[in-house]
Every structure is written in structure tokens, then in C-alpha cells.
């Protein structure tokens, strides 16, 4: 992608502005899933400011049409540029990346942009049995981008791919106190159902010894998956690789803030949701250790 300069110009289809080294990095997902990426970004880039948008009112993306996810992605990008003056964008959602990253790159050629995709190549390097499982949303699995990714590793391993309808939603609901118990039961049921449909996991000949978590929400059920599949199966996610790529892009563009970010200030780490504020706040406290009051309501019109 094109490099931005310290004071490069961001060009959307209608507006242009300068990138500012002190501005926040925008991160978004359909809900809490992207917090798993934000966690990795925060630890790899401790001096940067972040603004996170959880599009809960429009989740789950994985079970919506491609057009719907593209429209949401563009609307959120416009909002983050106009209202938070972001200097870079991390699309912390495999489904939105698959549907819209190419259009975002075309529309914002000077904005450093990082997407996430299922970590098939790292999984090939890790697998001993040569049989790899992949779980992701229906939208990701059905996308052309995923088909091309799968093509690029064909012949290097055998892949068993499973779309997990309902799982991201159940993970979202598990953060809401009044829905936590039934949501947790649903997660247990769905994980058992989908992993058993995929076949046999383990380190024996022909078994899947590696499972790619192709949805950022699934990182939050990693412990349950590990307990279900056994300690020898490796679970592969993308948060750290995304954080490294974000650092590289910012460095290349001269946009890495060198001073310490004040995380207690609203600008240091600000989280917004288009949906239920309590769910995001509970997840932010639980997963990122943020204090009460860290999350805010985003404008309904995004
Ligand atoms: N967390 C998102 C992903 O990585 C999408 C979950 C959803 O909204 O379906 O694909």
C-alpha cells in the first residue's frame, strides 16, 4: 500500500486532511471481538492512543450480506476519520476485512490500513500432521478473499474449514450479565457441535493438530476450545501479527508517537459502541482491565 508521510494527506472520496502523529489509531469490529486485537496493539504500541468502535447495533457481521458489511465498514471509517481524526485504521474483523479492505484501500490511499485474515500461512508452518482446521464466520468462509487465501496455501497442507453461525453472537451475549448463563451454555454447545463436525483433533496421523481462529471473537473462547480439543492442539490467532504490521506501517509513515500515551485520559484509550454500552464496558473491564466509565455511546446515525 502507499505510504503516508508524517503530514501526509488523507484522501477519502470527499475529504482530505493531514495525518497527525499524536492522533489515535482507529480500531473497529462488529462488537467485542476486536478487543482481542486491541489487547495485542496496546501491548506492542504502548505509546499510541486508540479509539475503538464496536458496531454492536449491526452485529453479527458474519451472518449479514456482503453489501451490508461493506456499507458498515465505509460508514465507520468515515466516522472515525471525521470525528476522531485517526492517523491509521485497524479493521479488527475478518469478515469486514474480507468484504471491504480492497475498497477501503482504494478510497483512502494515504491512510495506513491494516486488516485481519485467518492465519493459514503461520498454521502451515506450525502443523506437524499437515491437517489444519479453520473456524470463521459464514461471511469470511464464503468470501472471494478467503478463497484466494486458501488457494495460496493449497498443496502445503490439508484444510478443514467450518463456518460457525451463532458463535460470535453467543460470545457477545456472554458479556451481558442477564444473558451470561444461557449464552455460555450456547457457546459450549456450539463449540462441541462445530468441532465434532470437523473431524478428529490430535497429533496422530491425519488428525488436525492446529486450529486457526478466523474470527476475532473466538479468541475469547480459546480456553474452552483448548479444553475441548486437548492440550496438544495449537490454536492460532492473529492479534500479535496485526500489531507488528501496524507498528511497521506507522514507522514507515513517520507516524509512531514516541511519547507515553496517557491512558487515564479519554484520548489515550476511548471505546465507543453503537449498541449496548454495558456489554462493551463489561468486556473492556474483563479483557483489557480498563476502569468503569471507559466506554461511551456512539452516535446512532453512524
Ligand atoms: N469478529 C468478526 C470477525 O473477525 C465478526 C463477528 C461477527 O460479527 O459475525 O469476523
In spatial order, strands of the major sheet run 6-5-3-4-11-12
Quaternary: single chain
**The CATH topology of the largest domain is what?**
Rossmann fold
Please state the overall shape, judged from the principal axes of the Cα atoms: globular
Write down the Rg.
19 Å
Number of domains: 2
Distance from N terminus to C terminus (CA atoms, Å) equals 27 Å
**Class of the largest domain in CATH?**
Alpha Beta
Beta-strand content:
15-25%
Compute the number of strand runs.
12
Estimate the helix proportion, in percent. Answer: 40-55%
Q: What is the residue-mean pLDDT, rounded to a whole number?
A: 92
Write the layout of secondary structure elements.
Layout: E1 9-11, E2 16-18, E3 25-29, H1 35-44, E4 50-54, H2 66-84, E5 88-91, H3 94-107, E6 113-114, H4 120-126, E7 131-136, H5 138-142, H6 144-152, E8 158-163, H7 167-173, H8 180-198, E9 210-213, H9 222-229, E10 234-236, H10 239-252, E11 269-273, H11 277-288, E12 295-297
Parallel strand pairs: 3-4, 3-5, 4-11, 5-6, 7-8, 7-9, 9-10, 11-12
Antiparallel strand pairs: 1-2
Bound molecules: D-glutamic acid.
The site of D-glutamic acid has 16 residues, from helix 3.
Walkthrough of the structure:
This protein is α/β, with parallel strands linked by helices and 302 residues long. It folds into 2 domains: 2-116 and 240-297, Rossmann fold; 120-237, 3-Layer(aba) Sandwich (Rossmann fold), CATH 3.40.50.1860. The chain is built from 11 helices and 12 strands. It has helices at 35-44, 66-84, 94-107, 120-126, 138-142, 144-152, 167-173, 180-198, 222-229, 239-252, 277-288; strands spanning 9-11, 16-18, 25-29, 50-54, 88-91, 113-114, 131-136, 158-163, 210-213, 234-236, 269-273, 295-297. The protein has a 6-stranded parallel sheet with strand order 6-5-3-4-11-12, with helices on both faces. The chain has a 4-stranded parallel sheet with strand order 8-7-9-10, with helices on both faces. Strand 11 (269-273), helix 11 (277-288) and strand 12 form a beta-alpha-beta unit. The protein starts with 8 loop residues before the first strand and ends in a 5-residue tail after the last strand. D-glutamic acid (DGL) is lined by residues 29-30, 33, 59-62, 93-95, 137, 140, 168, 215-217.
Amino acid at each position: 500500500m502507499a505510504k503516508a508521510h508524517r503530514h501526509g494527506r488523507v484522501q477519502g472520496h470527499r475529504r482530505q486532511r493531514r495525518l497527525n502523529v499524536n492522533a489515535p489509531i482507529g480500531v473497529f469490529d462488529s462488537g467485542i471481538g476486536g478487543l482481542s486485537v486491541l489487547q495485542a496493539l496496546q501491548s506492542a504500541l504502548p505509546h499510541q492512543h486508540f479509539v475503538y468502535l464496536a458496531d454492536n447495533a449491526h452485529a453479527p457481521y458474519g451472518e449479514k450480506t456482503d453489501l451490508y458489511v461493506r456499507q458498515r465498514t465505509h460508514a465507520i471509517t468515515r466516522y472515525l476519520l471525521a470525528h476522531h481524526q485517526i492517523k491509521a485504521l485497524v479493521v479488527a474483523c475478518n469478515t469486514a476485512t474480507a468484504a471491504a479492505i480492497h475498497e477501503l484501500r482504494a478510497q483512502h490511499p494515504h491512510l495506513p490500513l491494516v486488516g485481519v485474515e485467518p492465519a493459514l500461512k503461520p498454521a502451515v508452518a506450525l502443523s506437524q500432521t499437515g491437517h489444519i482446521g479453520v473456524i470463521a464466520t459464514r461471511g469470511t468462509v464464503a468470501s472471494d478473499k478467503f478463497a484466494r487465501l486458501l488457494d495460496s496455501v493449497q498443496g502445503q497442507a490439508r484444510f478443514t474449514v467450518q463456518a460457525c453461525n451463532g458463535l460470535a453472537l453467543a460470545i457477545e451475549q456472554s458479556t451481558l450479565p442477564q444473558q451470561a448463563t444461557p449464552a455460555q451454555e450456547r457457546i459450549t454447545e456450539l463449540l462441541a457441535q462445530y468441532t465434532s463436525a470437523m473431524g478428529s483433533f490430535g497429533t496422530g496421523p491425519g488428525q488436525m493438530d492446529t486450529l486457526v481462529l478466523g474470527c476475532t471473537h473466538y479468541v475469547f473462547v480459546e480456553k474452552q476450545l483448548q479444553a475441548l480439543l486437548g492440550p496438544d492442539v495449537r490454536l492460532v490467532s492473529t492479534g500479535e501479527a496485526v500489531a507488528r504490521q501496524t507498528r511497521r506501517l506507522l514507522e514507515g509513515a513517520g507516524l509512531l508517537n514516541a511519547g507515553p500515551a496517557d491512558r487515564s485520559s479519554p484520548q489515550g484509550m476511548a471505546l465507543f459502541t453503537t449498541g449496548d454500552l454495558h456489554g462493551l464496558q463489561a468486556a473492556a473491564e474483563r479483557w483489557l482491565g480498563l476502569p468503569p466509565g471507559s466506554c461511551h455511546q456512539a452516535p446512532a446515525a453512524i
